[in-house]
Amino acid sequence: MTNQAIQVLQGPYITNTYGGGIQCQGETVNFTPFITGSASAQKPFEGSYDDPVYDMRDLDEDGSLDNAGDILYYMPTRTGQKDNYNLSVGISATWSVPRDKKLQKLCKEAAGTQISLQKQLTANKRLDFEIARLKNCGELLKAGIRFAPGTRYATICADVQVKGVNFMVQHKHSIPSPSVSESRVSESAADLGGPVLIQQ
Description:
Elements: E1 14-17, E2 23-26, E3 28-40, E4 48-54, E5 71-78, E6 84-96, H1 101-142
Antiparallel strand pairs: 1-2, 3-6, 4-5
């Protein structure tokens, strides 16, 4: 006799860790598919055998067999021998739910706060990096030091602007007009200055 059984072991709740010692457990669903099979066979396999039929005749009716032990013929007889195969397919499922929903809610709120804190710390680190890059690039540009345009690291300081070095603020200059007494019209070529020299 063969006894086969499927055992389903309940695992722990799924635990999510968010840092800062915050761990939350959620509902757990387990699906366990299984396949079992068995085979049995007899060796050597004989589907039938020849069963001898003996001579039981008493022709002279003297109370004894005339041809005791003689075989008249053989009768094919089935043995009933067969191979057995078994295949079982199935699935088992378990659903585990934490009972205290209040603690689950508090844990989720704490997890959300922890995630927000981590995002803010990351943003602060990014801000510190950008300010340090701005300061160092600005000081180098003031000193006339920069990467050659088109090189690998030229883009590090490409967006940094230093007033009076690589960035000029929009401005206007006023040019005074000459007074009426200073302006005159001359018809003399001497007033225009010396001749223009053209060199090759």
